[in-house]
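Tip: read the tokens left to right.
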């Protein structure tokens, strides 16, 4: 058993952590409080304090490492990348940070950049075995994204801004696991994420497989104090197999800095339906003092129970195990499902499809990001080699809990869970269909330098659908060309990106096309980062007479964060401008506060303060004739209220 269980198992399903100080102490300082929260796995609260510590002229490497780790554990991978980018550039940063930076780049879909960091780690340490799977995943991901499968995903209506995942269909209903909002009484808060402990929900399943009318399930299966879920059911629906966090005091204990911490592991409970309620019974092979058990799945005939555990005798972190039903109805001794489907990493969320195919998630085989979905055919401990389901089933993030409820000649239908970009919350439920296309619509395009017209090879071209989700992604050829296959009655955005160039995009629509066709587009990219060059950050708005950063402005500033993060030698002046209404002195002060607020936001997202200058110009640099006393329209005044970036060094 690994000393530290995967956070993908417990980060999604959860552990409860209790800290018991073993001695009295004085009131701790900011760093001591941050470190204590970090040791208690209260990453959301620890990150707030580490961010304050990081905003100094000479921040400590350990503070930035822990801050980056907090965001990684919270699955805020964009923020984790921002901070790891700084960590690896600091003096005395270890090779281990190259590995972590490579991992977060991979989770963010930056496969070429991730591969550079992973290969650098291997070259410096000689430990190629540790990164071989991840590097192979980077190479495979590029191929899978350039050649997506015919799966069509939809974000289900039951999703919220919190986490929903792991659907189990049962007739015209489904069970799933979700985070209640903070207003639900009797549900505690999980310090790891800062959100409520998980509970089991039900929803209606319509004829087209869409999910509606979510409600929390009955209290008798939701009455434990910590995490509850996911759930699987016997074919008759009268027995539920529920994963939950053990609520007692027999968890494993660790010690650090003379403090004692208890980790509550996962256990599996069987709930049997009575006349009007559910009767709970623990799974016979739970051992909460030694290991976790959860994520149950039944074979088609109900005689084999598959589950996930980190019990001794496995191949790596968490493995798939199975028990066979005995003559008396009990479950026999657990047996490992074997080294073919289990890896040195972590296997999670198994499900058995109608045709007997095993679907499960793993981070131990070459994949696109964190957890990827794989399939294998067989039973018990005899299986074919696992096959990655490719893109778009898998993404750069965690993809898991893949389950089918229809498999036929025309295709497939079912559900999966993912925290991929573009969702409503941290983990979302996606319905999917797989249908064979009847007509073919091709998009052919070129990438070129806007100033010279020369073709730009190796330009990263991304195809987005109407919801800004990635459909496919590939590099243009050595001749600066690219090609995608499109769906009917759809709208797309195609985006070209290349280092040292401004991105260019174009809209494409197949609405109304009824026969096979070929569309064409040209992407023209403009060179950037010339010292002294100024460009406007469009759509940065402030409330009247205010300087705080609004959520819509934060989204624009996040793009600037990415530019600064990806170009570590870039230094800028960030300037704010007002219109002429109000006194000159007041406008100058207001613009300075707004510029400073924007810089402070960038610092909070991981950009070093010494790379930026905040400058308020008030009304001294109007772009039109709307000076003091000149009557102008609302639109003319708006043109003067702007935020600009000037390149100081590159």
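Filled-in amino acids:
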């Amino acid at each position: 058993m690994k000393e530290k269980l995967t956070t993908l198992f417990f980060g999604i399903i959860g552990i409860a952590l209790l800290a018991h100080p073993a001695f009295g102490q004085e009131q701790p300082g900011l760093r001591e409080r941050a470190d204590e929260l970090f040791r208690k796995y209260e990453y959301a609260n620890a990150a707030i304090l580490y961010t304050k510590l990081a905003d100094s002229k000479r921040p400590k490497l350990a503070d930035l490492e822990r801050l980056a780790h907090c965001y990684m554990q919270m699955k805020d991978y964009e923020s984790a990348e921002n901070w790891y980018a700084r960590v690896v550039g600091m003096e005395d940063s270890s090779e281990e940070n190259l590995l972590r930076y490579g991992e977060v780049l991979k989770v963010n879909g930056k496969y070429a950049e991730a591969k550079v960091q992973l290969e650098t780690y291997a070259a410096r340490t000689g430990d190629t075995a540790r990164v071989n799977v991840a590097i192979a995943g980077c190479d495979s991901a590029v191929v899978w994204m350039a050649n997506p499968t015919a799966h069509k995903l939809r974000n289900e209506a039951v999703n919220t801004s919190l986490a929903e995942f792991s659907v189990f269909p049962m007739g015209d209903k489904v069970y799933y696991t979700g985070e209640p909002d903070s207003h639900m009484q009797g549900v505690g808060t999980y310090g790891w994420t800062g959100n409520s402990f998980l509970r089991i929900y039900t929803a209606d399943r319509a004829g087209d497989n869409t999910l509606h009318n979510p409600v929390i399930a009955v209290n008798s299966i939701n009455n434990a104090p910590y995490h509850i879920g996911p759930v699987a059911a016997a074919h008759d629906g009268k027995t539920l197999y529920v994963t939950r966090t053990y609520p007692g005091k027999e968890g494993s204990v660790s010690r650090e800095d003379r403090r004692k911490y208890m980790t509550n592991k996962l256990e599996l409970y069987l709930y049997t339906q009575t006349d009007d309620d559910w009767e709970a019974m623990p799974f016979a092979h739970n051992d909460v003092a030694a290991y976790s058990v959860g994520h149950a799945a039944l074979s088609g005939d109900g005689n084999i129970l598959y589950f996930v555990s980190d019990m001794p005798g496995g191949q790596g972190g968490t493995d798939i195990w199975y028990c066979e039903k005995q003559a008396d109805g009990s479950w026999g001794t657990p047996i490992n499902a074997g080294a073919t489907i289990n890896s040195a990493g972590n296997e999670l969320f198994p499900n058995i499809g109608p045709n007997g195919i095993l679907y499960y998630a793993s981070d131990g085989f070459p994949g696109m990001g964190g957890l990827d979905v794989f399939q294998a055919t067989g039973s018990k401990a005899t299986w074919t080699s696992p096959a990655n389901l490719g893109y778009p089933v898998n993404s750069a993030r965690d993809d898991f809990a893949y389950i089918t409820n229809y498999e036929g000649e025309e295709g497939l239908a079912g559900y999966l869970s993912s925290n991929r970009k573009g969702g409503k919350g941290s983990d979302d439920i996606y319905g999917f269909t797989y249908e064979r296309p009847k007509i073919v619509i091709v998009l052919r395009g070129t990438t070129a330098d806007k100033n010279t017209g020369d073709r730009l090879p190796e330009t990263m071209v991304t195809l987005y659908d109407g919801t800004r989700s990635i459909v496919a992604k590939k590099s243009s050829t050595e001749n600066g060309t690219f090609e995608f296959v499109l769906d009917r009655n759809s709208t797309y955005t195609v985006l070209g990106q290349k280092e040292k160039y401004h991105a260019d995009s174009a809209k494409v629509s197949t609405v109304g096309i009824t026969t096979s066709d070929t569309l064409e587009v040209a992407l023209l990219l403009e060179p950037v980062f010339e010292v002294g060059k100024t460009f406007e950050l469009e759509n940065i708005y402030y409330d009247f007479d205010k300087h705080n950063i609004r959520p819509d402005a934060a989204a624009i500033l996040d793009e600037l964060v990415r530019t600064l993060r990806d170009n570590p030698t870039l230094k800028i002046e960030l300037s704010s401008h007002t219109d002429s209404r109000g006194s000159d002195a007041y406008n100058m002060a207001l613009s300075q506060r707004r510029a400073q607020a924007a810089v402070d936001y960038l610092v909070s997202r991981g950009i070093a303060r010494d790379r930026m200058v905040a400058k308020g110009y008030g009304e001294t640099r109007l772009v039109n004739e709307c000076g003091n006393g000149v009557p102008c329209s609302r639109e003319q005044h708006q043109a003067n209220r702007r935020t600009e970036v000037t390149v100081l060094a590159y």
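The chain has three domains: 151-435, 441-527, 534-649. Confidence is low (pLDDT under 50) at residues 1-26.
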